[in-house]
Specification:
Layout lengths: L4 H33 L3 H16 L5 H18 L1
Helix pairs in contact: 1-2, 2-3
């Protein structure tokens, strides 16, 4: 445990950011899984939007986001 006041604050801030990142990742996984199971265009578009948001917040690397979006776009085009 830290003794210095600023270090104590950093621990609290990191815990809050970790919780936020966990929530975003969990929601992202849920939306992507729903898009994979349900081939509706709305679900796939929502998943692509969530991938963009996760990438913008730094939760996901830009190349990983591009790969996921490409996979989802293929499903969207195949669905018609």
């Amino acid at each position: 445990m830290p003794n210095i006041k600023s270090a104590k604050k950093r621990v609290k801030v990191i815990a809050a950011k970790t919780l936020r990142n966990k929530m975003i990742k969990s929601n992202l996984k849920t939306v992507i899984k729903a898009a994979n199971n349900d081939n509706s265009p709305e679900a796939i578009k929502l998943a692509i939007k969530k991938v963009d948001q996760a990438c913008a917040k730094g939760i996901m690397h830009k190349n990983q986001a591009a790969r996921k979006k490409s996979q989802l776009a293929k499903k969207l085009n195949a669905a018609g």
